[in-house]
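User: For documentation purposes, I need each entry recorded in a consistent format: the amino acid sequence on its own, followed directly by the corresponding structure tokens. There are two entries in this batch. Please keep commentary to a minimum and don't merge the entries.

Assistant: Recorded as requested. Entry 1:
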Amino acid sequence: MKKLLTLLLLFMFGNTVSFAQTPDINGIVYVTPGGSGDGSSWINATGNLQGAINASSVTKVFVAIGNYSLSSSIILKNNVAIYGGFDPGNGISDLDDARILPSLSVEGSALDGQNAIKVIDNTYTAGSPLTNTAIFDGFTVKNGYTLGGSGAGIYNYYASPILRNLVIKNNETGVGGGGIYNSTFSAAIISNSIIYNNTAEYGGGVRNNKSDAVLTNVIIKNNIAKMSAAGSGGGGIFNENSNIILTNVIITDNSTNFQGGGIRNLSGNPIFTNVSLVNNTAVNSATTTAMNIAGGLPVINNSVVFGTSVGNYTPQFSLIEGNTDFTNGNLDASGITDADIFTNPSAGDYTLKNSSAALNAGNNSLNSTTTDLAGNPRVYNSGTIDLGAYEYQGDPLVLPLTLISFTAKADGNQAKLQWQTANEFNNKGFEIYRSGDEGSFVKIGSVVSLQSSHAYSFTDYSPLNGNNYYKLVQIDQDGSTTELGVKKLNFQLSASYIQLYPNPTTDYLSISFGAGTFTQLQVIDLQGKVLQQYQLNAQENNKHLSLGNYPAGIYIIKLHGNAITESRKVVRR
């Protein structure tokens, strides 16, 4: 009989053998890794989490930090709040203490599906649903797996629990909702959580179907939707027949093999408020790297969206790449890059920089939260709300000028930069920097301030082959500098591309050519005499030289490569 009981307990609760769970006088059951007590205190903690949740008269379950390897999915319960992050051995024993909450570097209390089962499986019925009296707070949910089912991390069916302070990571399903699947009237309330590195056929991070979930202060990052067939997509979120609400949310670095790298909205009318949607990928759909709105009409408030989008939406006080509706407080995103808005987007830092156009550009009435994604005051110094998930904690940069516009346009094989200023004061001038895709900016010119409202211009006569990034920098009289913006141009230069400037010239000559094409440059007079000769390395795409010591006349600039020789005439006046 003893062996039979042991086998039964192992079948029900994994490898932990424990007594029947007994709440303390406050209705709390205590759980530790490997615990074998009745759960009535930390000293007598149980290791049986599901048994603690199911215990008679339980109202709360306190779970110590550590890894809990599951052999069966956990099921939440109405009127039971489950809290993780306790460390009783170090004095973190109740909710008055600062719990060890999970992050991408600290797991805290971790529920591990061992790549074999769903971690949380809240399958309920219409007649007996799971309500928001069920609370799940302070856990890492990881390594869930289901091939034929949905929601490998958390599955909600007729289930609307409160889910907060979670990291949901590394879960995978062969259907939808790698991190979370909210299905059939499951209005889960999700806050202060990270949904990271989950995989599904569609809805890599989150899948909603007939479920009006609410997400506040959530990061949805690095999730993958693998399927490339019709009806799939949504690297970050796949939404169908659901009026989800997102507030203070970042959706970034997600990808899909179909449509909607960040979001695919098949139907339903979501509301996005102070959302930052940036740097997502749609492998087979270059026009929907950010959003694919196949149906429904999302409302986008106080948000920043970079990437391509298809479909209809209603923007209000937002900066959205490709949007042409500049009513309702929307900003024109033309010529603006994510580097103009965010502190360091290439490193994943989507806080706002002090010169961002998103500062003080929102509408306070559209957001009812008091803090931003980082927990900072949502409106700084009782001012106007910013766009995106983060509120800048300071006053905007006060420039010694007002930048009205900054544009970059290709004119043949030249790049023409133009900018308009007003209210200049103590402005020394401007510097122009250029980089290619490698990201290393090099100064290519400067323009002196005219000390008044003025239109300025600068021409790059020798742009790089491929992408060119032009950064405009303002310089104060005291030498301090401020970046005013970065613009991008692309040039597809032929192998035989050569440009001489100025031509005619009185002295100095700039020669531009395709990098890696030529190995030698010569200056030759009409009698064939070589006056100057230079060896070129593979990275060089221009050469500056002087003709000032030669008499007026015509000279030949000859460039030699391994399989090409090109000549151009220059006039010395």
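Entry 2:
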Amino acid sequence: MPFKTLTYKLIGFIQKNARLSKFQLIFFLSVCLSVTAFAQHKTIDSLNKVLPSLKDTARINCLNELSKYYCNYDGVIPHYARTDSAEPCAKQAQSEAEKINYKLGEGSAFLNLSKIYLRRWNYYTAQHYTEQAISVFKNIGAQRELAQAYSILVDVYLSECDNSSARKYAEMLLDYYKKIKDTTGESQAWESLNSLYIWQGNYDKAFECMQNEFNLLKNRSDSTSILSMLKTREGLYQFIGWDDSVASTAAKIVEYEKKTNITVPDTIDEVSQTGFKYFMEKKWDSSEYYYKKLHNYIESDKGIDSIIKERNILRNDIDLASVYQYEGRYKEALLMFKKALQYDRERNVSYEELEELLNISQIYDLEGKETEAIYYAQELLSLAQKTEASFHTQNAYEQLWKIYNKKKDSANAYKYYVKYTALKDSTITGTFQRKLAIVNELDNEKEQQLQIAALDKDNKLKQSAIQKNMLIRNILLAGVAILILLAFIIYRVIELKRKNEKHLRELAENELKIQKLESGKKETELKHQASELKLQALRAQMNPHFIFNCLNSINRFIINSDGSKAADYLTKFAKLIRIVLEQSGKSFVVLEDELKCLQLYMDLEKLRFEIPFQYEINCNGIDVSSLMIPTLLIQPFVENAIWHGLQGTAHNNGKINIDMYVQDTILHCKIYDNGIGRAASEIKEKREAGKTSLGINITQHRLQLIDTPQQHESGIEIHDLVNEEGYSSGTCVDIKIPVKEI
């Protein structure tokens, strides 16, 4: 089936343009551009010019500023990151500060080194330098610098997926910024907590953090805060899958940036935005073109060092791999995703590794390589559980459920389906989305609070109902553990009674529609096979019916001691049985063979018929060897003419005429008998219960099931024949049979 990617396409673009918290990039894509007075007036060139003339603390401060600018951690200079130049400056500053016991300069150097290694995705070394900076700042009581170090440490822990440590220091930062009334720092602390709670699947807590951050930013009129709020909201929309809202908010951001001149558009920005725009519009060829173009721009960019460049190229190639995945170019996509996976595993970039494992599993699933798909899905599940990534744990359960379902492994499919739905229900994602919708649509703060409170109440009621239904489900599952299929059906029946089942049902219906579209040809073949099986079943009903009658006749000859007739009858019967057995597995047979079979049948009936009769078959020049008709289709009507028409006559000149001609690929077969007619036959059948013909009913049903272009023209018409005096003189059956030419 066509699949739904969970890669957040804006990560690569923002990461190429500004250094931010990696973890925050995944979920919010927010940029907090902070331009200080020093940064506005000093450039790298001017710092390098003034450095030789400086001594002691002034020189150390200049080296630290140079390191900060080269590293460009806060994204002050677009498309610039020279960590290879930043590192020597920071180390020299640290060494000189240690010699003269300048603790503030030494702590700042450690902090710059932590930023450098964080930009290089070397989290272990970044943590080491951050802890050294914290130790120095604590000893000298530099509170604001200490807060900056804690902020870096939060970034490190988030990147390493150490959630408990990240929460501890983020809450510490929050308290500090509240005390000094620093709304910018406070909003960043809320943003870090927001990221953490979404990662763990605690959407209610995440929503509270988002609301607190919005309340801080909306009261500020500066352009940077407004832009940050818009980008935070854009990230949330992307995370919960609101593609339309992502597109509209992205357009607002671009419009606002142009209006306020916050950023100066450049070639890399425009190419990246255009590639993403076409990706969202599912214009794969155009998106591929711009991502390849962006790859070339990054390679030729002299503003970033080789380490950052390698990472940026890799991120852009992942975007390109996502395009290949949608285009069905799985081999190329796999190579790119596996290369990225190896890179991120070596550097312990768990949040990127999770996305890559999911994409690789999905591609193997699409290729039909179920063993490999299961392996990477299990890897995804293991890492997601280890890092407490609730959202990715849910993705892993969903992926495993779908793969095992495709493999027809009901036990494992059901196991992971139960885990997937339980986790999905426990997070109550729908409530979080509705809360966000209220924030997006309502401008009046009072109305927002009232609506959110109502949703909280509704959430509690739904949680209570879910817990009750979960208890019922567990009891049912315990009682029918051996019969997994039956347990699944009961589980589904109970789940249909739940109030939030509408979403799951719509999802199942959409996936079923996709499967039907993808297997349309197979479905048509199955329908055709079903029709063939029905026809075989109907033929299987006719053959025993006729054989039973013939065996009765042989038995009668033997009882009457008529050995010669019994032998003659048995010989013809054996021939007929052989023909019937040869034709029993065929849908159509040559008309010539069908007529031979019919003649044998009528010869047998003449032998066992009490009053002899004659028959005549007139083909009117038809080439009987070049046409094919359904097997044993005419015989039931001939049988009916003999036993319900001729048998009741008192004269010895009974006769059956079979007249055939072809018109527009339809064989018209008319069977005339000079018997007692339908009215007298019906009276006779009422007196002799059990004599009705099953063969005619079966044959009528067979004609309805024949799958040919002329099927709608086939049918049976029966007419009563009368003599000149107006009395019944027999019956005419007109059978219209679709034929095939050899």
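Summary note for entry 2:
Residues 42 and 346 are 38 Å apart (CA to CA).
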